[in-house]
Model the fold of this input.
Amino acid sequence: MNFRHIPLYLTAALMLGAAPVAEAQQELRKANKHYEKFEFALALEQYKKASEKRKPDVKTAERIADSYRLTRQTVEAERWYAQVVAMPGRDPQNIYHYAEALRSNGKYEEAKQQYMQWAEEVPQMDERAQHLMASCDKAISWTNQKMPLAEVQRLSGLNVQGFSDFSPMNYGKDAIIFTSDRGVDQEGISAGTYGWTGRPYLQLFMASRDGNGNWGKPTALHEMINDQYHNATASATEDGQTLYFTRTQLVQQRKSGNADPTSWVDKSQVNEYINRLEIYSSKKQGATWTDIKPFAFNNVAEYSVGHPALSPDGKIMYFVSDMPGGMGETDIYYTLRQPDGSWGEPVNAGILINTSGRESFPYVDQNGKLYFSSDGHMGMGGLDIFAAEGKHAAWTAVNNMGHPINSSKHDYGIMFNEDEETGLLSSNRESSNGTDDIYSFKVLQKPVVIAVTTLERKQNEQKKNVQLPLPQVQLLIAQQNQNDSSTALTNTKGQYFMDGRKGNSYVMQGSKQGYLNQHSLVVVPKTAPDTLQVAMVFDRDEKNVAIVLENIYYDLDKWDIRSDAAKELDKLAEVLVANPTIKIELSSHTDSRESLKYNQVLSERRAQAAVDYLIEKGIAKDRLTAKGYGKTRLVNKCTDGVSCPEEMHQQNRRTEFRIK
Done:
């Protein structure tokens, strides 16, 4: 093109049109530079300016969405990921992030659709997608429960609007130490600004509660604790004289590693500068903290350790790390205090606690029970708070604390007061800008997991009753004296796990083609463990097949129903109620000792006593037939004159029923 012959007004127009494009490119370069340095809050400011001048391409839109996600601004993250997934050439991982944003915003049904789409585009992630879809269903169920598990309320006295306050830990009887980025300067030390969030660096604060339960004004800990970078998530010994806390070190390396000082992100995002966490301890002398010492297993060159949590007796310290050999992005470890006061070699808390995701923010209550947060176990969204049963070397179960302790957002950093019914937790559930707040809670009804196992009762070749898993049993479950009921199906192992409340009772009816229906009343005491085991034993509904009732014993030469026998007959009564059309013959048998006539009379009286007991329990008389067989139907070789051990004689002294 010959520019000498272009009219002046066209040249001016071209120059004016090129100016916004050039400005947009300049803003975009600034934004990308901030993004690549993990200064996401600063990057967003520049991305907004660039987007006003020029429509973002797919890479820029992804980075904008990522920046909102990594600063926990979930509403904007959802909006931008919705745009990204509609763009050609986008990475399928954006579908996953879109689903996570939807779930974080409580849009569970929409999130399920996106998880499904993600699995279609990335088939190797199908199992993970199915798990997340099941989590959505669980979250809907928890949210829709009529009676809340707890009352949860944001604390205005501890929180500062627009800043993050989180991870409270007990400090003495009426005080806590918590983490905040409110940015208080002390003795000339600037709190600084963290480019990731656009807020000051994290510092540790202490707050005390007066006699009325009101929190006083928080004060920053001594500058020996709060240095010029991040200082967070602390735990003190019971006497308050030693503090363990987390510090962040900026490490320059050209390999993958952790970038977020309070949590962890995908290691693929880290290029050069790595934020690594370390644990430090400090002794209190008077009003100041001194003697800062590093944890023996800090290793900033290779991995992070952080989030220390001491047991009440000070003998165990739990912490979080992404050290090699773990099970996921971050795992919970523990270390035991040695006789010389040092800490022993860290031990991974195991596969029941740790998942392929992130486990973090451990806490140990007065009874030594472990609480922690995870995004790998089934939850409502983001980090959920879980309670672990067992001990540090032998965990038996992990249970979600349920709604409203947990929400669709991040919930973590729980602690309990002395009453074990109230406490504090951290959450960003009400935040639009990604900040966290401290909430108080009061447990109204403690959750419990009811682990139902359905079993089939059979006799083996030795004529002994055995119980084998019975899969695919349909369960009808209702809270006692409530009209609402739900149905469920046990899995291939005959298992079903349901959420209940301590102090409640539940009615369960089980059915499967070819088996007698079963009825069970599950009474959950207030002192029950967090997981309650319930077994439902099923018998086949075949006619004229003997079903041996276990634990039916009689005193010598007597036929009265003992208390232990009554419990077994009560179970039979429940079977008859659950199967109202069947009629049975209830028979009693003896061993070969004593005469034929004597055993015949004794067995008839015992059978009739059992029938009379069932009639007293409300079973119609015409459904029951008593039959005594004496020693005429022995199940083994122990006949007259044959020497047998008592165990084999006991096999013959049995009570049976047959469907007529």
In short: The CA atoms of residues 72 and 434 lie 4 Å apart. Residues 1-6, 10-17, 254-261, 264-271 have pLDDT under 50 and may be disordered.
